[in-house]
Specification:
Elements (H helix, E strand, L loop, with lengths): L17 E2 L3 E5 L3 E6 L4 E2 L2 E2 L7 H16 L5 E3 L20 E5 L2 E2 L2 E8 L2 H10 L1 E2 L2 E2 L9 E7 L2 E2 L11 H8 L1 H24 L2 E13 L2 E5 L8 E5 L15 H9 L13 H19 L6
Antiparallel strand pairs: 1-2, 2-3, 3-7, 4-5, 6-7, 8-14, 9-12, 9-13, 9-14, 10-11, 14-15, 14-16
């Protein structure tokens, strides 16, 4: 059983990690250690309150998908006993939430795939009838399944908000051949993952992938099909024409919006009830999709 301890950041003597919104990344020379913390972000802010076990859910769900999808990826091991930690490190802080991966040259593009019309895609469609330059049929409703999934990339911002871009802009950034490869790989992985998830009762409405080059080989990196990188909807509650209940941090977004926070100043501490509900949703999504219990 989990102790529900919140791990907001980790430390290894002699190493200074690069801290993202959610992950701590340690450079081990020829490999990178990615540690998923329990930090949670919303509206481009890292919140002062963590969600117990969130990092373990993200890490273990990504590990499941990397194995299930059979796509070449950066993972070397998720077993902390096989990682090159210096002596004296408390491995309990890293167990279940760490991935040792090949050091790749990450591409500066978020490879977003949408199978349903929601979020910023829905807003853009309402204004223009298109998403990221892709013209869609008229008369589509919120949360409606698209005729086929679409590749709607975005910039990859170190901080702040990612910006949607067109396929042509991806070509300008990485070249036509690599842009085509990113698009085709992203659509292939999305279709494979969403078909699997649908059989388990979960709709993957949209998601984002990251890729990097290890030498001349393009690898799937970072995370894949987690509640932080995807919209997961319960199939049995799905109804076109409105927003959907989801297995992600929607509880947090809704609570923050209702709290009166202006989204420009430091965010408030989350209530205990919201923390509990959010943790339960993350773990529920993990157990449904993987068919296993979260490991300590």
């Amino acid at each position: 059983m989990s102790t529900n301890k919140v791990v907001l950041q980790t430390a290894i003597a002699g190493f200074t990690p690069k801290r993202g919104k959610v992950r701590d990344v340690y450079d081990f020379g020829d490999s990178l250690l990615l540690v998923s913390s329990d930090r949670i972000s919303a509206f481009d802010w890292v919140l002062p309150t963590g969600i117990p076990d969130k990092g373990k859910v993200l890490n273990q769900m990504a590990a499941f998908w990397f194995n299930e999808l059979g796509v070449r990826n950066h993972v070397l091991t998720t077993d902390v006993s096989q990682m090159p930690f210096p002596s004296g490190v408390d491995l309990s802080l890293f167990s279940g939430r760490s991935t040792l991966g090949r050091k790749c040259k990450a591409l500066p593009v978020e490879c977003v795939v949408r199978g349903y019309l929601s979020g910023s895609g829905w807003k853009e469609y309402c204004n223009t009838g298109a998403v990221c330059g892709i013209k869609l049929p008229s008369g589509l409703r919120e949360s409606e399944r698209l005729p086929s999934p679409i590749f709607t990339p975005s910039t990859k911002a170190e901080s702040g908000h990612d910006m949607n871009i067109t396929f042509g802009e991806v070509v300008q950034i990485v070249g036509f051949e690599v842009a085509e490869l990113l698009r085709d790989k992203s659509l292939e992985i999305f279709l494979r993952g969403s078909e699997y998830a649908l059989k388990r009762g979960i709709i993957i409405a949209d998601t984002k992938f990251e890729f990097g080059f290890f030498g001349d080989e393009l690898l799937l990196i970072d995370e894949v099909l987690t509640p932080d990188s995807s919209r997961f909807w319960p199939l049995n509650n799905y109804e076109v024409g409105k927003s959907q209940p989801s297995f992600d941090k929607q509880f947090v977004r809704d609570w923050l919006t209702a709290s009166g926070w202006d989204k420009n100043s430091l965010p408030p501490e989350l209530s205990e009830n919201i923390v509990t509900k959010t943790r339960e949703k993350y773990i529920e999504a993990f157990e449904i999709l993987t068919g296993s219990v979260l490991m300590d």
